[in-house]
Each structure stands twice: as C-alpha cells, then as structure tokens.
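Prompt: I keep going back and forth on a fold encoding question. Comparing notes only helps if you start from a blank page. Show me how you would write down a chain together with its backbone fold. Please set it down just below, with no commentary around it:
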Amino acid sequence: MVAGDCIRIQMHIAVPDIMVTWNVEVRGQAKDQSPAEANGCKARFSHSTLRGMLLSKEDLRKTQPQFTPKLSSWGLARRSILELCDGKRPLVEIEQEVFRRHGDLFPSLGEAAGFVAEVVTRYSV
C-alpha cells in the first residue's frame, strides 16, 4: 500500500451469534497499477471472528436458535454464587456455601473461593 491508495471495508455483524465478518479491498490509483492489477485491486482480504474462534461442532450446535440450553455443573455453581450475592452475606459465607453445594467441582475451599472471586469481581457492586 502507498499513499493515495483507497481501502474499502465491508462488514457484516451477526449480533445473535456474536460474530463479525469483514472484507478489505485495497485499490491503487490508475497510474500505480501494474498490468496484473488491471482491475485496480492491489489486495483483497477476508476475515471473520469465527475463524479466530476454536469452536467444536458441539459449541456451534449450541448457537443455533432451536437449541434448548441446560446449565452444566459449572453453570449451576455460577448461578449459586449470583443468587447468594443478596447484599446480606459476607464473601466468606458465600465461598463456604458454594463449596458445600458444589464440592464435587472444587478439590478445596481455596479453589471454590477463587471461583467465587472470579464471579463476584465481575458481577457485583
């Protein structure tokens, strides 16, 4: 690319799927074109967030509108934390309760506390 080149970007955003695709085309000025660039296009690129995401077939299936989701064990633990954040319980009680309810997910109270901290720092005020 050189000064004076024209860059054209076309974007498509699929909001429900949280995916973006974009096409980039670089066109030079007529005097800059070589015979190989007779159509004026110097470069063309296509990109997508989908290509950057490592999604399994199972993950892709879960993005379909007809999919009926059910929380996993980790989703249930996250929901427990959010429900326990009622403005009445101190963090230490939430950690203990999450470990009691979901001890199969955490080898120790410390690991449960780390998971609670991840959720609380993100969603509490």
